[in-house]
TrEMBL record:
<keyword id="KW-0028">Amino-acid biosynthesis</keyword>
<dbReference type="InterPro" id="IPR035686">
    <property type="entry name" value="CPSase_GATase1"/>
</dbReference>
<feature type="active site">
    <location>
        <position position="370"/>
    </location>
</feature>
<feature type="active site">
    <location>
        <position position="368"/>
    </location>
</feature>
<dbReference type="Pfam" id="PF00988">
    <property type="entry name" value="CPSase_sm_chain"/>
</dbReference>
<keyword id="KW-0665">Pyrimidine biosynthesis</keyword>
<dbReference type="GO" id="GO:0006541">
    <property type="term" value="P:glutamine metabolic process"/>
</dbReference>
<keyword id="KW-0067">ATP-binding</keyword>
<dbReference type="InterPro" id="IPR036480">
    <property type="entry name" value="CarbP_synth_ssu_N_sf"/>
</dbReference>
<feature type="binding site">
    <location>
        <position position="329"/>
    </location>
    <ligand>
        <name>L-glutamine</name>
    </ligand>
</feature>
<dbReference type="InterPro" id="IPR029062">
    <property type="entry name" value="Class_I_gatase-like"/>
</dbReference>
<feature type="binding site">
    <location>
        <position position="328"/>
    </location>
    <ligand>
        <name>L-glutamine</name>
    </ligand>
</feature>
<comment type="similarity">
    <text>Belongs to the CarA family.</text>
</comment>
<feature type="active site" description="Nucleophile">
    <location>
        <position position="284"/>
    </location>
</feature>
<keyword id="KW-0547">Nucleotide-binding</keyword>
<dbReference type="Pfam" id="PF00117">
    <property type="entry name" value="GATase"/>
</dbReference>
<feature type="binding site">
    <location>
        <position position="285"/>
    </location>
    <ligand>
        <name>L-glutamine</name>
    </ligand>
</feature>
Length: 397
């Protein structure tokens, strides 16, 4: 075991295929299970584990040195850690960053979330890449605990986790009540190095946007607000009638965890809103829900896309964008109706990345244009949504 963490209690990660990875417990003690996925981003561990789309997933970070910049209040993408567990190679023993408020280890512990360090994440990633994402579990014990017994328990839990297919988690992680959002992007400046948040610029023509929260990341809301959107964030199960009664200029469907297939309430709402001709934009789970609303099917990918370096081609401009990705399901390109066209494809595996409706003001993207973490190459999709709203005559105006 890694000599770097001699004073940490033992923990074992088990995969459902029977592979055991003994390591050291970081964060909370106890046990957790979920789908084990790997993320190849080099930065942004705090944004990753607080992304609600990771609910019920144990995230392996392939970058080997994690925790060195600590954690802070501003970089959380939601109000809690959503990943079911965290797997790293080396946990940085020192935290050094002017924005750091706490260590990753403490952050996990305070949130009651388990992590495991000292794992050969390259070996683990090769298994997940070759066999596909699979169920797994972490059991974290106390110093002196029998590692074999921990492993046995972890394997039982791993085998008992049913997998992500069929799981509707959007309605689990969504906000309970609607709320307004006015915070725009932030900048780092000032002697204290604290971020300064901008609010919606009232001098620009404002757009009223209703945002469905299926597990929304804050930076999406900020990037929409930055572009003059006054947002009302609504629970996942809000009906189309309620949304349309707000007379929005546009509707946004957020990212979120789980399988899009069982989200029948959201698929029905998206269908009605798109058919009404209200400009609609979806990201990740929102994109999948829009695809299902159009009559297409979704499929489970072998190991999905989780990272911040995924090349995606814009078929309209021919330009390649390096994008952030986090999804395990995808819209099946072979099932698209004739009024929906493919706008973006992944240059890693050719899978479908973006859609636009030919007869309605609607578009959606499988990856994460808000990045956080990741490059901003594809942030122009937010501008396209605003342009769609500008080009669409609102009923009654
Ligand atoms: N980031 C997301 O919205 C993920 C969507 C969906 N849960 C998937 O895994 O494909």
């Amino acid at each position: 075991m890694s000599p770097l963490l001699p004073s940490f209690p033992p923990a074992v990660l088990a995969l459902a295929d029977g592979t055991l990875f003994p390591g050291f417990s970081i964060g909370a003690a106890g046990h957790t299970s979920g789908e084990v996925v790997f993320n190849t981003a080099l930065t942004g561990y705090q944004e990753i584990i607080t992304d609600p789309s990771y609910s019920r997933q144990i995230v392996t970070l392939t970058y080997p040195h994690i925790g060195n910049v600590g954690v802070n209040t501003q970089d959380a993408e939601s109000d809690q850690i959503h990943a079911a567990g965290l797997v790293v190679k080396d946990l940085s023993r020192r935290v050094s960053n002017f924005r750091s408020e706490s260590s990753l280890d403490n952050y996990l512990t305070n949130a009651g979330v388990l992590g495991i360090a000292g794992i050969d994440t390259r070996k683990l990633t090769r298994i997940l890449r070759d066999k596909g994402a699979q169920s797994g579990a972490i059991v974290a014990g106390k110093i002196g605990d029998d590692v074999q017994a921990l492993g046995k328990q972890a394997l039982e839990l791993a085998k008992a986790f049913p997998g992500m297919a069929g799981l509707d988690l959007a309605k689990v992680v969504t906000t309970k009540t609607a709320y307004p959002w006015r915070e725009a992007e932030w900048e780092l400046h000032g002697a204290d190095g604290k971020p300064a948040y901008k609010t919606v610029d009232q001098s620009k023509p404002l757009k009223k946007v209703v945002a469905y929260d299926f597990g929304v990341k804050r930076n999406i809301l900020r990037m929409l607000a930055e572009r003059g959107c006054e947002l009302t964030v609504v629970p996942a199960q809000t009906s189309a009638a309620e949304v349309l009664a707000m007379n929005p200029d546009g509707v946004f469907l957020s990212n979120g965890p789980g399988d899009p297939g069982p989200c029948d309430y959201a698929i029905a709402a998206a269908k009605e809103i798109i058919e009404k001709g209200v400009p609609t934009f979806g990201i990740c789970l929102g994109h999948q829900i829009m695809g299902l609303a159009a009559g297409a099917k979704t499929l489970k990918m072998k190991f999905g896309h989780h990272g911040a370096n995924h090349p995606v081609k814009d078929l309209d401009t021919g330009r390649v964008a390096i994008t952030s990705q986090n999804h395990g399901f995808a819209v099946d390109a072979n099932t698209l109706p004739s009024n929906v066209r493919v706008t973006h494809v992944s240059l890693f595996d050719g899978s479908l990345q973006g859609l636009a409706w030919t007869d309605k003001p609607a578009l959606c993207f499988q990856g994460h244009p808000e990045a956080s973490p990741g490059p901003h190459d594809i942030a122009y999709l937010f501008d396209r949504f605003v342009a769609l709203m500008n080009a669409t005559k609102k009923e009654g105006k």
